[in-house]
Amino acid sequence: MNTPPSNALSQLASIVHAYRQQADLPQLLEALATFADKTSTDEIFAAADRHAGIPEVLGPLMEVVVDREPGHARALVRLANAYWLTGRGPEVVGELASRALAVDPSHRGAWHLWALTDTEPRGRMQRWLQVTERFPDDELAKANLADNAASVGTAEDDPVALKLALDTFTDLRRTATHPQQKDAIDQAITTLRNRR
Fold it and tell me: Which CA distances in Å does 139 have to 128, 135, 147, 149, 190?
């Protein structure tokens, strides 16, 4: 028996409200399992959208969706993100991100999670470079590339990585709109120029 869509939204809202009041994780997990058992995949996904910022809610619901539909790229990405936020580690998150990329190579969120999960600084830098090449207007990816390249360049005294960081920060500076953002980028550029 499936829960009507509006009913699914209100039922999940009630479960989340109870969790916020009592902070009882085992009770939350039991309530989510019961909810998911009688709710269609589409309804779970739609209801989970309203609570995407709560990884302990999103994770168990996306586990159900992924169990039902192993090739659901958006669910894989959301599950990977929930796992990342709850500290499940780069191996598990990276595997989910890779699965999502295999299903939908255009999913930017999957690329971001894939890049985050490389445990080696240089590998992470290379992954962020790939993301920026695939999505040239992705400023978050550029910021991550710049930060990782600066870290690699500084830690390993690597002039190529330092130049990559400087070039990327300079590119970000051209599109920065907020004064605090501009100041932070200017400070990073000055630091890198002094380092070189």
Answer: 11, 9, 12, 15, 20
